[in-house]
Recover the amino acids of this structure.
């Protein structure tokens, strides 16, 4: 599915479905090396598990409770019962007159089911927001918000990048698996800015240049004035001219007439005349 979506072989209607995104991300944590990836990712969210507990983790995708509430994923790992509710473009469903809000139903069902397993319950709410928006969780009463851990898809992308960079011993096939998922999240604009160190990642190629700004002396087209020293630069030095290159207002008007061999004579008579035509009968 990764490659088909990366190559644009899926319709936008399918690509934008949050179920597809949830499946792509958490299927990776299920099938990739859990020692390297699942254990590390859950640690970021505040859940410390051992390597053995990571390997023994159970993934239950879209389980259904008795009241027909269907979360995206339940992970039973170590001492934890982790219910995952993921959103992409949509929001958590609000309550109606007949049903409670989505997050309330999931927390209540999850707490009861976690008791059956003898585990500690937590709700992991995943959104595409770049930061935590408290209004997203307003449907949860205050006493239930303590069970909720918010995160975003961007955290997954950042985790994948740092894990690949810091663990050169990861097998090549798993590294390529993680890189494809990272590329997919990047394509969906679910990667936060990580600084210029991202340029060191193997999946990004760039060309080094001796400079990144243009040389004003050799540029053919310029917009801003850069000064006479730069704009009039040439291989040969400019020569000094001793003639006027600007208007000299002290010079007399028609001064060039003095150079004529004969002076102009003043005229006493008119120089224009009016022709009057007579009309015959």
């Amino acid at each position: 599915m990764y490659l088909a979506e990366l190559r644009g072989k899926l319709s936008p209607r399918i690509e934008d479905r949050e179920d597809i995104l949830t499946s792509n991300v958490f299927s990776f944590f299920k099938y990739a090396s859990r020692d390297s990836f699942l254990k590390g990712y859950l640690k970021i969210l505040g859940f410390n598990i051992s390597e053995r507990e990571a390997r023994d983790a159970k993934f239950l995708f879209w389980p259904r409770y008795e009241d027909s509430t269907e979360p995206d994923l339940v992970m039973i790992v170590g001492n934890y019962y982790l219910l995952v509710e993921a959103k992409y473009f949509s929001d958590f469903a609000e309550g109606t007159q007949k049903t409670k809000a989505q997050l309330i139903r999931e927390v209540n069902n999850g707490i009861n089911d976690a008791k059956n397993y003898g585990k500690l319950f937590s709700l992991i709410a995943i959104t595409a927001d770049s930061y935590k928006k408290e209004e997203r969780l307003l449907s949860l009463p205050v006493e239930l918000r303590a069970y909720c851990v918010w995160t975003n898809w961007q955290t997954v992308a950042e985790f994948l990048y740092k894990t690949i960079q810091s663990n050169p011993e990861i097998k090549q096939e798993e590294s390529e698996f993680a890189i494809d998922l990272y590329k997919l999240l990047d394509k969906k604009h679910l990667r936060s800015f990580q600084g210029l160190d991202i340029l060191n990642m193997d999946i990004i190629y760039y060309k080094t240049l001796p400079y990144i700004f243009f040389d004003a002396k050799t540029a053919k087209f310029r917009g801003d004035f850069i000064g006479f020293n730069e704009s009039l630069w040439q291989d040969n030095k400019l020569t000094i001219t001793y003639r006027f290159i600007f208007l000299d207002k002290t010079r007399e008007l028609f001064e060039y007439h003095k150079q004529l061999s004969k002076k102009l004579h003043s005229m006493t008579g008119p120089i224009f005349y009016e022709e009057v035509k007579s009309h015959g009968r």
Notes: The CA atoms of residues 169 and 175 lie 9 Å apart.
